[in-house]
Write a structure and sequence with these properties.
Elements lengths: L2 H10 L5 H8 L5 H8 L10 E4 L9 H17 L2 H5 L2 E5 L5 H14 L4 E4 L5 H10 L4 E5 L8 E8 L7 H13 L11 H6 L3 E4 L1 H12 L5 H7 L5 E4 L8 H9 L4 E3 L25 H10 L3 E5 L6 E8 L2 E4 L2 H19 L6 E6 L5 H8 L3 E5 L3 H13 L4 E7 L3 E3 L9 H17 L4 H12 L1 E10 L5 H14 L4 E2 L2 E8 L4 E4 L5 E3 L8 E5 L4 E6 L5 E10 L2 H17 L3
Parallel strand pairs: 2-3, 2-4, 3-6, 7-8, 7-9, 12-13, 12-14
Antiparallel strand pairs: 1-5, 4-5, 9-10, 10-11, 14-15, 16-23, 17-18, 18-19, 18-21, 19-20, 21-22, 22-23
Helix pairs in contact: 1-3, 4-6, 4-8, 10-12, 11-17, 12-17, 14-15
């Protein structure tokens, strides 16, 4: 069925409301818009679905949500009646239609005889991961588009370990979506009837308390906070999202007396009216927080994204000036602090381990190794970090004390298997307070780490390739790099290139091939003769290719110069 036939079918579908049909009728003369909405399905991957909201097969709406949930329900039912009886936990964030989409997903699961634990209001993503594990659910669903702009929404799926769906299950959901009709194959039932039948149970404060008890169990040195609590000030913003309640409460329990919240951004709003993008990676989003921090003399600023799985910080560099730290820098600071705090308080386990992804700074490996920790790489994504943690600990090869990736995601403790802004906020605040007790800001601490471990610099470039031909351009770019690997980049020789698709390592000078541990991901890596690593990876959730520059140098100026030089090469890849 071509896109025109799909369009006509949706227009005639009884499942559509009058408002939805009106939206489709309004584009009747716009061939390009019709094609963009109906040329195919949103691709279901290991991160689930993500796209702009609207009516159509290639949009996020209740019909696509029901369709994906029906496919997911059948994957669960294929596991057998005992697995299905364990039920599914469902969560949602502050975005427009998130609560509606979550309820629709719950009703489809209920109609398939799979019991649902549905949060009674929006909650942080890590609390969903916790609930899956706490209540022994077979799976979980989260309605969120994380830090994407307001036009987006998403459908994330989790398995029984509390991590996002493993590839084999994601592939099976995608296959079933291809087999099932978007309208005719879907089972659903009335929400109130599902509640009355006990097929949907609401989760609330009792789950919050269980989650928070675990969060507070990760505190290493509460005394460090108590020592400066009368004078230490911080600013917090949830960017209108799900961190608005539990993060301030967790900080209060930590012993913080002066948590200054950005009042305008404490209001839940899926339109994110005070920011262009609700992404803690973007410094401009912190404008209101910086104003408050400067007015009140705060020591640092912390912000969580709309679903409260990622967290970013700004640090006082002196004179009331605040600088954003990258996810790499924040993670290195936190790893070094956790090692010191656990050693001071006797909480360091035997055979401690740090985990990072292949695109995360190599400085983390240096910090780990200098302090006697093993450090392992995984592919990008917390499902891989969670999988490696479970395997290492299950085989008795070590205890993971910290896992992170450069995109502002941090995982601590044993009760979640995903990024966790709530626990990270507590750990970062404890760290900032401890340094304050030493007469240092986090900026001072970062400079001290560079002196101790060496100078590193990182930059991520996003080569956006939108439109219907974007996927083709992305594929062509990767194919071109594989068929003709660069011998030189920015004036530096390529020593070797690594292809994480097949796990191959090729010596650029001799052509000798060897194998590495990781394989099965569409990522290329180039090692240069000046110690720089460059990785190229198509995004799994957005129409862009990401290029990661990981530099080492004599000092920060040297690192910055290398990043600038290699950025030119990366930008040229877009053509």
């Amino acid at each position: 069925m071509d896109y025109r036939e799909q369009y006509r079918r949706w227009l005639a579908a009884p499942a559509l409301s009058a408002q939805e049909k009106g939206e489709l009728e309004a584009i009747a003369g716009d061939e390009k818009e019709i094609e963009s909405r109906f040329f195919g399905q949103l691709a279901f991957g290991t991160a689930g679905l993500r796209g702009t909201m609207g009516v159509g097969l290639y949009r996020m709406n209740v019909h696509v949500i029901r369709h994906a949930t029906q496919a997911f329900a059948q994957v669960i039912l294929d596991e057998g009646p005992q697995a299905a009886a364990r039920g599914v936990a469902v969560c949602f964030d502050c975005r427009n239609h998130s609560d509606e989409f979550a309820r629709e997903a719950a009703c489809v699961m209920a109609a398939n005889g799979i019991p649902v634990r549905l949060f009674d209001a929006l909650r942080p993503t890590p609390e969903l991961s916790f609930a899956i594990r706490e209540y022994g659910c077979i799976a979980g669903i989260n309605i969120t588009a994380s830090h994407n702009p307001k036009e987006y929404n998403g459908y994330k799926v989790y398995w029984s370990d509390g991590a996002q769906l493993p590839p084999r299950h994601a592939d099976e959901v995608a296959r079933k979506m291809g087999e099932l009709d978007v309208f005719d194959s879907v089972k659903t039932m009335d929400y109130d009837r599902a509640l009355a039948a006990g097929l949907i149970t609401l989760m609330g404060a009792e789950t919050d308390e269980k989650f928070l008890a675990n969060v507070m169990g990760e505190v290493n040195d509460k005394g460090a906070v108590e020592a400066v609590a009368d004078t230490f000030k911080m600013v917090f913003t949830p960017f209108h999202g799900a961190g608005y309640k539990l993060i301030p409460e967790a900080l209060r329990r930590l012993g913080m007396k002066h948590v200054l919240c950005v009042s305008q951004q404490m209001e839940l709003d899926g339109n994110f009216p005070t920011v262009a993008s609700p992404n803690p990676e973007n410094p401009e989003g912190f404008a209101l927080a910086v104003e408050l921090a400067q007015r009140e003399g705060a020591d640092f600023i912390l912000g969580s994204d709309p679903d409260a799985d990622r967290v970013g910080i700004m640090v006082n560099t002196g004179g009331g000036r605040f600088q954003t730290l990258t996810g790499n820098q924040t993670g290195v600071l936190l790893l070094d602090y956790l090692i010191g705090a656990r050693n001071r308080t006797g909480r360091m386990p035997a055979n401690p381990v740090a985990l990072k992804t292949i695109v995360t700074t190599e400085m983390a490996r240096k910090v780990a190794q200098v302090n006697g920790l093993a450090c392992y790489d995984t592919f990008t994504g917390f499902k891989f970090l969670a999988e490696r943690k479970d395997r290492l600990e299950g085989e008795g090869q070590g205890k993971v004390i910290f896992a992170y990736e450069e995109s502002y995601g941090y995982m601590l403790g044993d009760y979640v298997r995903d990024k966790d802004a709530v626990t990270a906020a507590v750990a970062l605040t404890e760290m900032a307070a401890w340094y304050a007790g030493q007469g240092m800001t986090l900026y001072d601490a970062l400079l001290a780490l560079y002196e101790k471990y060496g100078h590193y610099g990182e930059r991520t470039l996003n080569l956006v390739m939108p439109g219907l031909d974007g996927l083709r351009k992305m594929a062509d770019l990767m194919a071109g790099l594989r068929s003709a690997p660069p011998r030189e980049i920015g004036g530096a020789k390529v020593v070797c290139w690594k292809d994480y698709q097949d796990g191959s390592v090729v010596d650029a000078q001799t052509g000798k091939r060897s194998a590495m541990e990781l394989s099965g991901s569409n990522v290329l890596r180039y090692e240069l003769d000046d110690g720089t690593s460059i990785l190229v990876r198509p995004s799994g959730t957005e129409p862009k290719v990401k290029v990661y520059l990981l530099a080492q140098g004599r000092d920060q100026a040297d690192c910055a110069a290398k990043l600038e030089r290699y950025s030119g090469w990366a930008e040229g890849l877009k053509g």
